[in-house]
Amino acid sequence: MSRLICIRHAQASFGAADYDQLSELGYEQSAHLGDYMAGEAIAIDKIYIGPLKRHRQTYETVRKSYQDQGQSLPDPEVLSGLAEHRGPEILRAAMPQLIDTYPEVKGWHDDTVNHPERKIRNHFRVFNFFMMRWATDNIDFDLSVEHQDWQTFKKEVTGALQTIISADSRGVTAAAFTSGGTISAIMGYALEMQDDARIIEMNDSVINTSMSEFKYSEGRMSLHRFNLTPHLKKKELITYV
User: Helices marked H in the chain — which ranges?
Assistant: First the structure.
């Protein structure tokens, strides 16, 4: 039996021009994670990372902690299927139609215009509203055919997952540095969930730099532990972006 530790990237730069960049707090979270893993002497035989900058930055910070404690991590293999879904990109493109189509979205948009201090709260209201409809193919207008759909995203994640769990021999510990939506899709695969709405809901609960552990053997896998953060000792270190 082998195990796969899925690690969500540290806090990215929400609201900045380049979201795909760890924030100062994100680097701190990553360092705490690395210190914990190295301190517990968690030996990793194989590392996989998604193609995003925040995935690699989280991995590199953890790797430095290992090196500082006289230990090592293997070089990573990049898997495109460990990328995050493109929901935020699609939401930005579809926002005018969402405002025109759904009174709820128009209300949150207008509330933000009138009360800029509510921008973040209303952003996540719109995001969650859109993601639930996107994942269940329940949008009342046509999205551009060039946009990724949820089922395609899940297939890409499954492809990366099959590469991981079929490549290693028994007794291997692998780690994957990836994103919250990707971990949610992996959870859905492991639990054989058919309800896409429930899968996308899990995205909201995946903590930055949390560890979710799966057991796998002969191409099958099961959830062992979810969303572990023993390295985040202070409340202010718990974030979800």
Answer: 24-39, 53-68, 87-101, 103-114, 119-135, 150-167, 180-190, 196-202
Q: Lowest mean pLDDT of 61-65, 119-123, 141-145, name the range.
A: 141-145
Phi then psi for 121, rounded to 5 degrees? -60, -45
Domain co-membership, 67 together with 102: no
First to last CA, the chain: 32
Mark whether 92 and 121 lie in a shared domain: yes
- Taken as a whole, the chain contains a residue count of 241
Domain count, the chain: 2
Q: Are residues 25 and 60 in the same domain?
A: yes
pTM of this prediction?
0.94
For residue 35, the domain's CATH number is 3.40.50.1240
